[in-house]
């Protein structure tokens, strides 16, 4: 592959090395200069990604640069940039700030590689790069809850990684290659049991990264135990690469394979959206509520994988929904980061004390529901249409019912914002987290209003 096609990934990888070296030779009380280097690298990578998006698709040696890759690059870079801003309130001046930033960059590179991989070996390496740095980030604070969450995250991640590698091995045995193009040609003639077992094992790894059922158990514990900026990142950004990888696998490999991919993906979507909603209904901890919410969102996003190859809106709807979800979920977590809150009742009366934060939270939560004119509404509408076009009307009806049901637990958070406060006023809000929350709300509304042109680009 022409190395110039990988400029965004190379910039982030080199920035991680540079930040590690600069942080090692910088006094602990001056780690802020490492943050400036990272922000500059992210902006350069974003510019390179936008420039690359105007060129033709490219691919060779296990990696594809196409519309999906371009969209994921932009989303991941913006997600990492937002996380750096969220962390500025709580980690500025931290003696290990450079380590935090290096791990964040490496996790972002791994996520981008997941989306572009078109070879099972590249996919496996990308999985490891998108996972191992995050294990350390979750336990970054070295407190009891973070350490426990990191241990659970690591154990389930290691198991899922082993399953992914085992599945890749089985598919190699079935198709004689790990390249998606070769597997697409060979799997239709391969033994059905071998193919089904290999696909399910590979799915285990990708569903772990996405936070979908049945390997979703880590999500609530990590969201609650990790530092708030890390929880925001881990429950949002990695799933972008994982879901695009799932879509690419279904599109390029499994269309003619001897298994009903559409039914399998539809069942996983139905289970994720339903169990996620059920887990969120009576949560009083805001982080766990957002964690179960993200599990349910994976269910809606998996509808694209179920409709792959049978609906024109499947891929653009998936990419648009991922961008919309990125803005809405990071915005909701930004409010949590700004206030340092843990429970729903701590937000009572927030509109009186912090009106901009309260309004931003309302926009982001209503966006997660799928309320017009927010961006998630357009994303859901596109994927509901794709599911209907693909002959999955039952899945669309179930998704609509789950969307309506989800309004209950989001309103449990929204309504108290406008009540009289029963406790002492909230402490001063983090300035950078506040800016991220307001920006995310504006982006969510802006994407919804400009959905037509954006979907056209996708």
UniProtKB/TrEMBL annotation:
Its main location: membrane. It catalyses: a quinone + NADH + 5 H(+)(in) = a quinol + NAD(+) + 4 H(+)(out). Residues 117-400 form the NADH:quinone oxidoreductase/Mrp antiporter transmembrane domain. The keyword Transmembrane applies. It is a multi-pass membrane protein. Keywords: Cell membrane, Membrane, NAD, Quinone, Translocase, Transmembrane, Transmembrane helix, Transport. Its EC number is 7.1.1.-. The chain crosses the membrane at residues 6-24, 36-58, 70-88, 100-117, 123-141, 153-174, 194-218, 230-249, 261-282, 289-308, 320-344, 356-379, 391-411, 432-455. It is an enzyme of class 7 (translocase). It is found in: Cell membrane; Endomembrane system; Membrane. NDH-1 shuttles electrons from NADH, via FMN and iron-sulfur (Fe-S) centers, to quinones in the respiratory chain. The immediate electron acceptor for the enzyme in this species is believed to be a menaquinone. Couples the redox reaction to proton translocation (for every two electrons transferred, four hydrogen ions are translocated across the cytoplasmic membrane), and thus conserves the redox energy in a proton gradient. NDH-1 is composed of 14 different subunits. Subunits NuoA, H, J, K, L, M, N constitute the membrane sector of the complex. Belongs to the complex I subunit 2 family. This is NADH-quinone oxidoreductase subunit N. It comes from Nocardiopsis tropica. The lineage of its organism: Bacteria, Bacillati, Actinomycetota, Actinomycetes, Streptosporangiales.
